[in-house]
Amino acid sequence: MVMTGRLSPPSYFNIDRAQMRRSVSEAFWAMCAADSMSMPVHWYYNIDDIKRDFGGWISGFNSPRDRHPSSILTLSNTTGSGRTAWSTEPKRPDVVGNIILHDKLDLWKASTGSVHYHQGLQAGENTLNVLCALRAAQTLVSGRFTDFSQPDAQAAVLSNYVDFLTTPGTHNDTYAESFHRSFFADWQDTSPSSPGQVLKFAEKRSRQKLSSSHPDSQLDAIGCLTTILPFILLSASANEEQAVSSAVEFVKLTHPHPNVPEYVELYSRALHAVLGGASVRQQAEHALRRLHVWDVCQSYSRRAARFAVSSEKRLKVHQSAVSYLGLACYTKGALSSLFYLAYEFHDNPREGILTNTNCGGENCNRGAALGALLGAGGSYSEAFIPQEWKDNLRDAQEILPDVLQEMQ
Questions:
Q1: What InterPro entries does the record tag this protein with (predicted)?
Q2: Residue 14 in domain
């Protein structure tokens, strides 16, 4: 796929610093809200299961049920990427239980086969990927780096990431997706820990995987966007090229798949523009055209417009659109669904976040990236997510105020 064409950047000199900080702040809060809202129904592929398990469509934060109706957690590979049945490499030690997720291996090997991916989390808590993004934001602001694309910034974030995931008791999530398991399957051979050592390891690993004739398809996943969100959000006042470069260079270290950089660039340019005051709807249309799904999205958009706003009939159209465009984790499809929802809910972050949740599938990582876009855009029209949501975001309340204060 070749993606060409770009929108003109917004006029940043017309935007005061207070408004820019509001935009970044709302993007962070909406990122966390969308992830936490979706967490209990993450990877619900039959949307009727949402209504059955929660007595109707999701409208607020919930704890997950112990049982997950679509769970394949017990089929997942505890020694690395993908599923156990896919692994053709010699048997390696379990990463889950030994290196990361120290007390969770029994859940991955449970005989019931229906364990919830996020068993152990409570209403208002965030999944592991967003927790990593929050930690990265902490590291970047406390380090006072002037350019996040530089090696010292990357090294600091990676070193903090290694410390966070390898230290028992740092979080309560049960699941770590393939990119985490793949990273630590390779990391355990030498176990580098200092910033310089971790960066050197990650760079070498990235070069090897990006040049491989058989790239790991599990790394071409929408979780790559959650990983780079703090790099773009905290680069809101930097020029576009510097901001995008920081995201693209970092994601090569965590998701070394040849398709990922161009998707990250597409999303990063859109988010950076919206942080600076550009139209969410215009950016979404531009992205959907570059993804070659604009015509089909317009068809769903016209169908949705026939029904009342916030009605179940309109929701069902959006659910059908997301199911068609991409319900699973693979980046192109999930990115298409994300920008479709951004286009439809460009002026209503609250409804956009709830609709994303109730579409099911890979709604957590899709939601985090969607939330950042909608939150940033909503800050300019005072379409904020509810304060009640912010108050009940447990992890975000512990971390975000300090991050936002450091930005002042």
A1: ADP-ribosylglycohydrolase, Ribosyl_crysJ1, Ribosyl_crysJ1_sf
A2: no
pLDDT value at residue 46: 96
Which region among 82-86, 133-137, 182-186, 207-211 has the lowest average model confidence (pLDDT)? 82-86
Q: What is the pTM of this model?
A: 0.95
Alpha-carbon span 167 to 391, nearest angstrom: 28
190: how many CB neighbours lie within 10 A of its CB?
10
Q: How confident is the model at residue 1 (pLDDT cuts 50, 70, 90)?
A: very low
Quote the CA–CA distance of 334 and 249 in Å, as a whole number. Answer: 21
Rounded Cα–Cα distance for residues 179 and 164 (Å): 15
Q: What is the DSSP string of 332-343?
A: HHHHHHHHHHHH
296-305 tens-digit pLDDT: 999 999 999 9
**Does 31 fall in a domain?**
no
263 lies in which domain range?
39-407
Please state, in angstroms and rounded to a whole number, the distance separating the CA atoms of residues 17 and 22.
9
Task: Give dist(CA 58, CA 356) in Å, integer.
Answer: 10
Q: How far is CA 255 from CA 343, 348, 388, in A?
A: 27, 31, 34
63: domain CATH number is 1.10.4080.10
State the burial class of residue 37 (Cβ atoms within 10 Å of its Cβ: 0-12, 13-18, 19+): buried
Arithmetic mean of pLDDT, 72-92: 77
User: 25 lies in a domain?
Assistant: no
Residue 18 lies in a domain: no
Number of domains in the chain: 1
Supply angle C-alpha 347, 351, 357, rounded to 5: 130
Phi-psi region of 378 (alpha: psi -120 to 50; beta: other; left: phi over 0): alpha
User: Crossing angle of helices 151-166/240-254, nearest 10°?
Assistant: 40
Q: What is the pLDDT of residue 106?
A: 95
Using DSSP, state whether 83 is helix, strand or coil.
Answer: strand
> What DSSP assignment string belongs to 155-220?
HHHHHHHHHHHHSTTS-------HHHHHHHHHHTTT---SHHHHHHHHHHHHHHHHT-SS--GGGS
In a 13 Å sphere around the CA of 40, the CA atoms on its Cβ side amount to: 24
